[in-house]
Amino acid sequence: MLHARIERKKGFGGEVAMVAGTRLPVFLLLHHMRSGWDEAEVIRHYPQLCLDDVRAIQACAQSCPREVAADDATYDASLLAYGG
């Protein structure tokens, strides 16, 4: 599944795909992109990311959509577990 710039880390109630070297989950950044953010806007809001990171997020979403969706569901479940 994972691109060199994407790694699985513990967080949000389980292991989720995150941009390597950050605590930014792939599913969260994909939500922003699906709501209309382009690559430049993602980088503007998350300056620790570079264009290659954003492209790795997109590649991860295309190659493993079920895993990304499962990560999103894990996050949603963690919110419910913690009363969010």
Notes on the structure:
This protein has 84 residues and is α+β, with helices and mostly antiparallel strands. The protein has a two-stranded antiparallel ribbon with strand order 1-2. Helix 1 packs across helix 3. The protein is globular. The N and C termini lie far apart (29 Å). The model has no long low-confidence stretch (mean pLDDT 87).
Instruction: Classify the helix fraction into a percent range.
Output: 40-55%
CATH topology label: Arc Repressor Mutant, subunit A
Biggest sheet details: 2 strands, antiparallel
Question: So what's the overall shape?
Answer: globular
- The CATH class, by name, is Mainly Alpha
Query: What structural class should be given to the helix and strand makeup?
Result: alpha+beta
Report the count of strand segments. 2
Low-confidence stretches: none
Tell me the CATH architecture.
Orthogonal Bundle
Q: How many independent structural domains?
A: 1
Query: How much of the sequence is in beta strands?
Result: 5-15%
Distance between the termini: 29 Å
Order of helices and strands: EEHHHH
The CATH homologous superfamily is called Winged helix-like DNA-binding domain superfamily/Winged helix DNA-binding domain
Strand arrangement across the biggest beta sheet: 1-2
Tally of DSSP helical segments? 4
Query: Which radius of gyration do the C-alpha atoms yield?
Result: 12 Å
- Which whole number gives the mean pLDDT? 87
Topology:
Blueprint: E1 6-11, E2 14-19, H1 26-34, H2 39-45, H3 51-63, H4 65-81
Antiparallel strand pairs: 1-2
